[in-house]
Design goal:
single chain; alpha+beta
């Protein structure tokens, strides 16, 4: 579903009928603006629940490294690196899996002496996000690694959430936000129950390991004043 289609479904679920069906997410005011904001907010909330969703996974090649240059720029879309996935010349007979060290340990281990160019064996992530390797690479070294992308907010009608296939979770959470503001206890209860079911389905299919979701998403008690 597109951003606009999600908003239209939430409108139907919440019963905001007197404002009509939104034809765009841009420039809305009042209740429809709040509805659009809730859909975007729900999407981002779900995406940020875990840093290792499968739908955010991507493989990256840094390309051929510059000989003697130990610091390598990271993509701007990185949210969470898979620290076991850093390889030099992956898929070749001389492939090397680099060992991760926390930056302070890397610094204390390698900064006091200069290492000759060779095949990197260790890496760290600098405070600013760049990668640093040791020893510095010799020529012909290609670095690859896997990471999970930063969540991207939906902003235009045609935007599609990375959740996509399981986007009913977005709908139910957005409905819950609306019901919470309106102090609609019945709709809060029903939408929260549906959201939890949709979230369990999403987590079962899009997390690398099964999480104990029952402890993470406890039942809530709804009190309407």
């Amino acid at each position: 579903m597109s951003f606009l289609e999600l908003c239209q479904e939430v409108r139907d679920r919440t019963g905001i009928t007197r404002f009509g069906l939104p034809s765009t997410v841009i420039g809305q005011v009042g209740q429809l603006a709040y509805l659009v904001d809730n859909v975007a907010r729900a999407d981002m909330f779900i995406q940020r629940m875990h840093t290792d969703w499968k739908f955010l996974f991507t493989e990256h090649s840094f390309g051929a490294l510059t000989a003697g240059t130990a610091t390598i720029s990271s993509p701007s879309t990185v949210w969470n690196w898979d620290l076991e996935s850093f390889y030099i010349n992956k898929g070749t007979a001389d492939a090397t899996n680099l060992k991760y060290l926390p930056y302070k340990e890397f610094r204390s281990t390698f900064y006091s002496t200069a290492s000759p160019n060779d095949t990197p064996s260790f890496f760290a992530i600098k405070p600013g996000g760049d990668i640093i390797v040791n020893p510095p690479p010799s020529s012909g070294k290609v670095l690859t690694a896997d990471y999970y992308k930063k969540p991207v907010k939906m902003t235009v009608d045609a935007s599609v959430s990375d959740i996509d296939e399981y986007n009913q979770a977005i709908v139910e959470l957005a409905v819950f936000y609306y019901a919470e503001k309106r102090h609609d206890g019945g709709l809060m209860q029903s939408s929260w129950s549906k959201f939890k079911n949709e979230l369990l389905l999403l987590e079962d299919n899009e997390l690398p390991e099964r999480y104990e979701t029952n402890s993470q998403h406890p039942d809530i008690t709804i009190t309407v004043e």
